[in-house]
Design goal:
With about 350 residues, the chain is of the alpha/beta class. The chain folds into two domains: about 15-220, P-loop containing nucleotide triphosphate hydrolases (Rossmann fold), CATH 3.40.50.300; about 230-345, no CATH class. It is about 50% helix and about 10% strand. The strands form two sheets. A five-stranded parallel sheet has the order 2-3-6-1-7, with helices on both faces. The protein has a two-stranded antiparallel sheet with strand order 4-5. The N and C termini lie far apart (about 45 Å).
């Protein structure tokens, strides 16, 4: 059942979480910041893994730190930040050994979070592991290979560690990686079903503001877990409910899905399902739109990003090779979806 927007005085905790994160960031264009924070929140609700990409000077790590400090606080019992790749090791004598040591250390921390997250008394708490400045090696080992195992909802191994029996991956555990790369080309069918790729162009020279969260962090976490939708059935049900009188607005998304399935059948994957899960999570648990309280505007913002991230990104290599396909997609987009249109412009035919 989808809750109706709460007209009473009690705040929508998801909207409050967004506002408090924005207040801490103090960076750049306010409109871009808002959409970035909301997109990050939706990604956290939608899939277990997130990869934030952007130039080295972008505020990827700051965004994650500020968001997690509000959501969880500085409790290392629930939130761990670790060096993804030891770039410093390149100047050391034992390069390979130092890289292995960092990997073992990261795996140890992940195992601790995994053990805590599955405990019954922690079901209403969120656990987050952040790996900063990862390389393609960590992307493959910690994200792609783990995502492959999650097709069955369980994992048998982490880099350097093998479990005696499969462990159900808890829905209250998220793994976030940051990557110093302006473009992301390492797309594969194992990674994307469990991972959201988010470009981050926020620039910040300031340190995080020491602002205390206005709500109890356990309340934030409970609501976020209640609001999170990862089941296709739940996603379709919620989208149909909240778009009751706006069904025509979904046509561009459905048309693009149909074209990609026809032209790129072997890349089709679960385009429709992925997009619907994103759309479902763009509404709060209480029924408010995260981008806008106006349902039509919220759906439009969410569709723009769902088309970009759920439809175009998995097929970017093939789309970039076909001017005809790009033209067909642009005809559907028109001038209505700025993010999706801008993304297509980057994919020049090879």
């Amino acid at each position: 059942m989808i809750n109706k927007p709460n007209s009473q005085s009690s705040p929508d905790l998801e909207l409050l979480l967004i506002e408090e994160t924005i207040n801490r960031l103090e960076v750049g264009d306010s409109g871009y910041i808002r959409n970035m924070v909301i997109n990050f929140l939706i990604a956290l609700k939608s899939k277990p893994f997130i990869i934030l990409t952007g130039p080295p000077e972008s505020a990827k790590e700051k965004l994650v730190e500020d968001f997690n400090n509000i959501l969880i606080g500085k409790d290392t019992h629930q939130y761990q930040t670790m060096i993804g790749h030891p770039w410093w090791a390149a100047k050391s004598i034992n390069v390979i050994e130092n890289i292995r040591f960092q990997s073992r250390f990261n795996t140890f921390k992940l195992e601790l979070l995994l053990e805590e997250a599955v405990l019954f008394h922690n079901k209403s708490r969120i656990f987050i592991a952040t790996m900063t400045k990862i390389s393609r090696g960590e992307l493959l080992e910690y994200f792609t290979e783990t995502a492959f195992q999650l097709r069955h909802g369980q994992i048998m191994r982490l880099p350097g560690s093998h479990f005696f029996e499969p462990i159900p991956f808890p829905t209250n555990l998220s793994i976030i990686g940051t990557m110093d790369s302006s473009d992301f080309f390492w797309v594969d069918s194992d990674l994307l079903p469990q991972t959201t790729i988010l470009p981050c162009l926020l620039i910040s020279n300031s340190s995080s503001r020491n602002l205390k969260a206005t709500m109890n962090q356990i309340s934030f976490q409970k609501v976020l877990l209640q609001s999170s939708i990862r089941s296709p059935q739940q996603a379709f049900k919620k989208v149909l409910k909240v778009t009751n009188t706006l069904s025509q607005a979904l046509f561009p998304f459905l048309q693009i899905t149909q074209i990609l399935r026809k032209e790129l059948s072997r890349y089709a994957g679960n385009f429709l399902t992925e997009g619907m899960i994103y759309l479902a999570n763009s509404w709060s648990y209480t029924g408010n739109g995260l981008f806008s309280k106006n349902p039509r505007e919220n759906l439009h913002f969410a569709l723009d990003l769902a088309i970009t991230q759920s439809l175009f990104l998995p097929c970017m290599e093939e789309i970039s090779k076909s001017k005809k396909l790009q033209d067909s997609l642009n005809n559907i987009l028109g001038n209505k979806f700025s993010n999706a249109t801008a993304y297509l412009r980057q994919l020049h035919p090879i």
